[in-house]
Design goal:
Blueprint lengths: L4 H11 L3 H12 L2 E2 H8 L3 H13 L3 E6 L2 E6 L2 H30 L9
Antiparallel strand pairs: 1-3, 2-3
Helix pairs in contact: 2-5
Length: 116
């Protein structure tokens, strides 16, 4: 029995469901990074970053390569960067719509209620 596609998608998005993992993927969308370069940018402890990177490796979203004592990480596919960009566009549209609603609410005069 094969796993339904919708379930695989849910697991994929669950993998993306942590701010530190998203930040790592954003940084790797720009270029390859070493762990020491990621640490100050992600803003978590080294052990926690190591756990997040291991999860991303197991999920085949990133790969690592060792150069001497330095480990560098990169995305396995440029589609990951495209997905993050698409998420940014969706959020921009959603927030833009909310800003328009807020503007409309503020521009609409309040109904005054009679207080006794």
């Amino acid at each position: 029995m094969t796993t339904p596609l919708y379930q695989l998608k849910a697991e994929f998005f669950k993998t993306l469901g942590h701010p530190a993992r998203i930040r790592v993927l954003e940084l790797l969308s720009e270029r390859d990074h070493s762990v020491s370069e990621l640490l100050p940018e992600v803003g978590i402890e080294a052990a926690h970053l190591s756990q997040q990177l291991a999860l991303l490796r197991r999920s085949n979203l990133v790969v690592s390569r060792k150069e001497g004592s330095t480990v560098h990480y990169s995305l396995t596919s440029p589609l990951v960067a495209d997905l993050l960009d698409m998420a940014r566009q969706i959020l921009t549209e959603m927030l833009s719509g909310q800003a328009e609603m807020l503007h409309d609410l503020r521009a609409t005069p309040r109904a005054t209620s009679a207080r006794h």
